[in-house]
Amino acid sequence: MPQFAEFGPAAAWLKRHPQVRFVDLLLADLMGIPRGKRVTTAELEGVHGLGLLLPGSMFALDVLGGTVQSTGLGFDEGDADRVCLPVAGTLVPVPWLGEHVAQMQVSMYEHDRTPFHGDPRHVLESVVARFTALGLKPVMAVELEFYLVDRERTPAGHAQPPRQPLTGRRELKTQINSMQELNEYSAVLSAIDAAARAQELPVGTVLAEYGPGQFEVNLHHVDDPLLACDHAIRLKRLVKGVALAHGMEATFMPKPYRDHAGSGAHLHVSVLDAQGRNIFQAEEPVGSAQLRHAIGGLAATMNDAIAICAPTANSYRRFQPEAYVPLNPSWSVNNRGVAFRVPHGPPASRRVEHRIAGADANPYLLAAIVLAGMHLGLTRRLDPGPVLAGNAYRDTTPTIPQSWPEALGVFERSEFAREYLGERFASLYAATRRGEMQDFFSYVPAIDYDWYLTTS
Length: 456
What we know:
Blueprint: H1 7-16, E1 22-28, E2 34-40, H2 44-50, E3 52-55, E4 81-86, E5 92-93, E6 101-109, H3 120-133, E7 137-149, H4 179-184, H5 186-198, E8 203-208, E9 214-219, H6 225-245, E10 249-251, E11 265-272, H7 289-300, H8 302-309, E12 331-333, E13 340-342, E14 352-354, H9 363-380, H10 404-412, H11 415-421, H12 423-440, H13 446-452
Parallel strand pairs: 1-6, 12-13
Antiparallel strand pairs: 1-2, 3-4, 4-6, 5-6, 7-9, 7-10, 7-11, 8-9, 11-14, 13-14
Helix pairs in contact: 3-9, 5-6, 7-9, 8-9, 8-10, 10-12, 11-12
């Protein structure tokens, strides 16, 4: 049986923050979108004891919040409630909403307190348990890229960069690592940093990325993948909230602009043995044999994982040659063009950076599918093939699924996904994504009229 959060630490926290009146209880759905309820602090003890009731259909939603009925979690079961219980250590202030509001993450269980199969946090927990059974502990850090965009859309309804706070101009050019970009957005970036520290997030580097108004925030590594993903969920809500408070929006949409870089979610993963030693450590830059086996597993399962790494139609617009987005299961040292990068650093820092996913991927599911691939590689001692040298896009022939329907079909046929994520969860995930996909492709976009109305 799982261990549940006790009210004592929350009560002590509330005593230290007497100004807090409300607590937002957040449940991350299959897309990582926070759902839930706002309760008063007086109700929080009851939530710890009896739980918060929410329908299981929270994990049958598309991105617009509609229930995909083919999952069986809607009308088929009367939209039945399950029990949601607090995640220990996630009660934190919400500075951008004022001093009276805090938040806490919850996870869903059946009424007998067994984990609900549709909750991605439990899916990740089950994959981590496989490492625990081997006496191993994964260490993980998450990097998230996002764009700041104007709250007003263009006349065509498209996103556009915000007017820069200092000059009032719209920056439309690419400026990687631009200090001017950091200067222009210093106030909002400082507020993001302050809010992250208030929420005890292990934030590190903030840098200006390739696109106008695009930034990356790095979270420091922790030896608990569940905690690393809790941090990522918290950071995404934080960035969006702080941006709104500064008169702009933040988006983790993978490809908001046709002619500018996409936004990714990169995972850095190493593995500790029972003595706390990094099993990937080696004097050689390519790392140990175990690191290569782990990468071998990631390479062997890359196609199975694409539907989780790229969960929406927009996700696939990132996959373009020479856009720092991998198109095949390549690996190398200190090379950002490959799928699996071994960063430069001292021997003890040897790790793999997984560079495939878009920023819209659910952090728990992304971590689960990445760790599952690594576990497969470690237990079967898989070979990743030769180290790539030079330009990763010399061969521009993609080997990964290039469209949402193709990727989803691969996922639905994947024995690997069913084995590691669970039969019921894999079916649930596929049903929600397929339902959303069918609805999405039923619409006729403006470009169809521009290209085909008078030419056909």
